[in-house]
Each structure stands twice: as C-alpha cells, then as structure tokens.
Amino acid sequence: MLEIKDLRVTYGTGPSAVPAVRGVDLVLESGRKLGIAGESGCGKSTLALALLRLLPPSAKLTGQVLLDGEDVLTMKWGRLRAVRWAGASIVFQGAMHSLNAVHRIGDQIAEPVLLHRGATPAAARRRTVELLEQVGLPASRADAYPHELSGGQRQRVMIAMALACDPRLIVADEPTTALDVMIQAQILRLIEQLVADQDISLLMISHDLAVLSDTCDRLAVMYAGRIVEEGPAKSVYDAAEHPYGRALSAAFPRIGDLASRRAPRGLPGDPPDPSSLPSGCTFHPRCPVALEECAREDQPLREAGPGRQAACVHVGAPVPAQLSAAPAEPRP
C-alpha cells in the first residue's frame, strides 16, 4: 500500500543545501509493520514527515511516495488534506508538544471527525468516547486538559487522534519517547493490538532495534539519510549484515547474556554532519572493518540473503571478528 521510490529531502538551496534524506526506497504491504531505526540525526523523522508532506516550504522533496498508487508528493491540496486523515495519519514524537494545551482532550480528538467526516457534534462526541475506550482511557478523560494527563495517557490520546478517521496507514514517530519502561511496553502492546484488530499498516520509527524487532515484521536501518540495511526484523536484529546495524544491536543488553548486561557495546564517534558528508561510504570513518575502497566508493544496497539487503562491501563474506565496536565501560 505504501511504496517509496528514490525519496530525497534537501533543506536550503545552493552551496548551503543540506541533504537530510538521500534516495530512500522502501515498500510496505497492506496490514504489515515496517520499522525504521537509526541514531538521532540520521533522517528518520524527516522521512516520516516527508511521507505526508508535513515539512516546511524550504524543504525540497523529490522522488515518489505512492499511497495506494497515488503520489503524495504531487497531490493537490484538497486531496492531500483528506489523505492525511483517511488514508494515513501520524503519531508525532512528544505528545505534550503535539497537543494543544488550551483545548480539552475530547475536543481535539473530535476535531478531525467533525472536519473530515462531516459528523454532528453529538456523533463526534460518541466517536471520541469510543476512541478513548479503544486506547484504554475512561470517557471522563475527554474533559481533561493535556497537562492533567500522565505521559502514557497523552500518548494514548495521540493514538486515538490518529485512529479518528480509520486510516489505512499509521506513521508512529518514536511513540514511546520519554516514557518509563512499563508504560512503553503498554503503548507498544496497544499499537500492536490496534494494528492487528483493524488491519492497519504501520510504519514505526525508533532508535531502539530491540523494540522494532519485537513489534515489526521488517526492519530498515538508516544512516546519514540512507537505508543501509533492510530485511526481516528478527534477522536484522539478531544477525545484521551491515557493521552499523551490528553496532546498534550490540548497544542493547540481551536477556540471558550476562556479558552484554555488564558491558553493553557502543560505537565511537558521532553521525556525520549532513552538510559535509564523508566521501565514499558515509559510515567508513566509524566503521571497525572499513577498507580503503570504502573511503572512495559508496556501497549500493545488495542482496544479503532471502528478502534482505545491505549496503556494505563485506556482504556475503565471513563476519570479521572486529565487526562490533569496542565495549563501553561497565556502568556502576
């Protein structure tokens, strides 16, 4: 239902232009769940906003974003406005900043129903109560203001708003940000249940490979605006082909692996500045197994097994012993 073809997003023009997304190709089938992982600054959120043309006018978008065969990037305003609710909707990162602080929760959930469904106020109110119950909140919360809710409750409200007009696709941008572990688990289970019950497609963005591998069917790893690996979620998390994917996976402790709990592995260095990207493979300055050719030539995505792709010269070769980064110092 969603096909992204050579999507590119650039901020600014001329010599000061900054490429935030660089030639992304992805496919999401109806009723399936796709995760996108990567460090802060890799372009995940820009990609999410680009899918619904929610970026500022200064951003230049090229390529195609086909939603049920229609190109979102070339839609007229009226059609785009309808698609943003009935075709696809987004759960923004940071619920407190996404909700209007001076309006009651019920009014904010009812607004898209009134605008896009042409419902009466009474019907919109009934729909609001139904949505609150769907996400595990009592109907009385409709009269509350955002500051009167906990972080987990606000996130549930954001999910209710996203479901208001029965979209076929939900884009969830870091839906568990700033929530404690128990609440994160509740929100993730809620999203999974709603997606399954209502046959909704899900594109979830996170820096946490462990969360995405447990929630999604497929997983794409993003670095410096590009997809560097993509495949079945469990396979990518358990045995990534790209050194960056391996480093991300190794950063999380594993249940039953005492060594990973004592000293989670890390990755030295920082993501590159998008305005001044390294030559060749943009990951090579941080890569523990980079070759000379990696600094000269960028690596395209290549087949790395059934249904898998990775953009690395080592794809298909035995995994070098030093592929994971050096372990971080044990936490006290």
TrEMBL record:
Q: Which domain of life is it from?
A: Bacteria
Alphabetized UniProt keyword annotations: ATP-binding, Cell membrane, Membrane, Nucleotide-binding, Transport
From the UniProt entry, list the residue stretches annotated as the region Disordered. Answer: 260-281
Instruction: Give any single GO term for biological process.
Output: peptide transport
Q: Which residues form the ABC transporter domain?
A: 2-249
**Pfam families recorded for this chain?**
ABC_tran (PF00005), oligo_HPY (PF08352)
Q: What is this protein called?
A: Dipeptide/oligopeptide/nickel ABC transporter ATP-binding protein
Q: Which organism is it from?
A: Streptomyces niveus
Output the lineage of the source organism. Bacteria, Bacillati, Actinomycetota, Actinomycetes, Kitasatosporales
